[in-house]
Amino acid sequence: MAMALLTEKGINPQVVEYLTTPPSKQELEDILNMLNCEPRQLMRTHEQEYKDNNLSNESLSRDQLIEAMITFPKLIERPIVINNGKAAIGRPTETILEIL
After folding, report:
1. Total domain count, the chain
2. Given a cut of 90, is residue 12 above it in pLDDT?
3. What is d(CA 83, CA 66) in angstroms, rounded to the nearest whole number?
4. Greatest CA span in the chain, whole angstroms?
């Protein structure tokens, strides 16, 4: 749906398949800063990897959560759209319009 919205707006995005090419720690830090959120807010908390690795543990540091997203990229909420130094999580799709 996000791709259809972007295409409708005449935008041909660069697609990063981060399930096969996970972002670096710095890329995740940059995305979190653009979204103005903490790692858990970018995580798919219902995924089995989240549960299996006890990532709901409040004592885990920001770095530990970011490392978990790098190790288990399936945990990263998607799609994430980045445009002109701003980012939006494309769920719901309409949030993308805020950064176009």
Report:
1. 1
2. no
3. 22
4. 44
